[in-house]
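Bug #77: duplicate submission created two jobs. Keeping one. Sequence:
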Amino acid sequence: MRKRIAVIGGGIAGLAAAVRLRDVCPPDTEIIVYEQGGALGGKLRTGELAGVSVERGAESFLSSSPDGGDSAAVTFARRVGLGDALVHPAAQPAALAIGGTLSRIPAGTLVGVPGDLSALDGVALPATGADRDTGRPLLAPGQDVAVGELVRARYGAEVVDRLVDPMLGGVYAGRADRLSLRATMPQLARTAETEHTLRGAVRAAQALSKRTPGQPVFAAVAGGMSRLVGAAAMAARARISLGLPVREIVRAGDRWHLVLGPAPEPQTDDVDAVVLAVPAKPAARLLAGAAPDAARAVGELDYASVALVGMALPPGTPLPELSGFLVPPGEGTLVKAATFFTRKWPHLATPDGPVIVRASLGRAGEEDRLQLSDQVLVEIAHRELGELAGGPLPPPAAAWIQRWGGGLPQYAPGHPDRVAAARAALPPGIALAGAALDGVGIPVCVASGERAADDVSDYLEASA
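Kept job's structure:
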């Protein structure tokens, strides 16, 4: 009998699930992707600024996996026909903006956590003698702590404030003292179970990486991430339902009954399995009836809000010889990171073209600072970028702002255990995927969607 599978959520995790389902399920399987918004892609969205394609969400993804092979995102791009469209950033260093000066980020750190304290080049002064061998591992097996708790105890506050916080802020818009070590740095958490010093744990974690020296760390898609979204939708050969939210999931015999659309005029659909690839709060709401324990575990996740500002500066605008910079929270600016976009991505630059700069604004707990008009936020970003980069910038010829309210998950200590508990409490035929569960970043989201697809495929095969 022909099977029907619903993928709820049209972000990259949901699309990856749909493509994998198309690959592993019988050819006549009907796959329906329900996206309550008006477009697929989630946080992947390519915009235009002064004739240049500029990302309004994630701008790149990791090229390789920890084992040295291609990352899940690179493999996925090839699967959907975009292998030849992968591009890499220029070999430009990045910096930290500290006290009005741009200092290059020290080499050899693991998300800002150094393995060699002598290589910090004065960016941060580590605590003296704190990282001593006490004769036992840093963490007990399975123990999870906040990143900041471990690093402060071993290296001191300045390493956290000036290095780790801005690095984590650039990825998660969060603070080291509130983010789970196991969720954000799983390799370091693993080596901390055997190593007696943080320096030893960082070096051991770095040794686990089999990335080839000289291999580009990041990749993107020529033409923009929206091109990846479109190619994935085509490869999935799924029925796409836009603008029709799923409001309820109810068990109906051995199938799942979906309630869709506005409450006054509901629509329904029945499917054999469901991949749920939406943020934590909607996931918890949809699971409340079918899997209350899973709903409670998922619903504990908090999110940070951020805004991205894109500015097209006049051709030839001088900027530091960097790909961009990160800003420690202690600097007090609304800007937490900046990318010199056309310098970082040379395939987008032309001699007479605009100089594109993209800034990220806001951190966890700073939502009130984003409650300003678009115009005011652009003005603040323009002024702060000039101050941080070393001098006033000329007025932009064009600018836009992209707000991502509640856009970045904040993984509190214990997050991996809560995710495991949520998945264990799921009824057969439902699988979870996405950044709410497994981490931010396109490779992680792709892998998460593919795992969920495999789970429901295995269920359908076993129940046939």
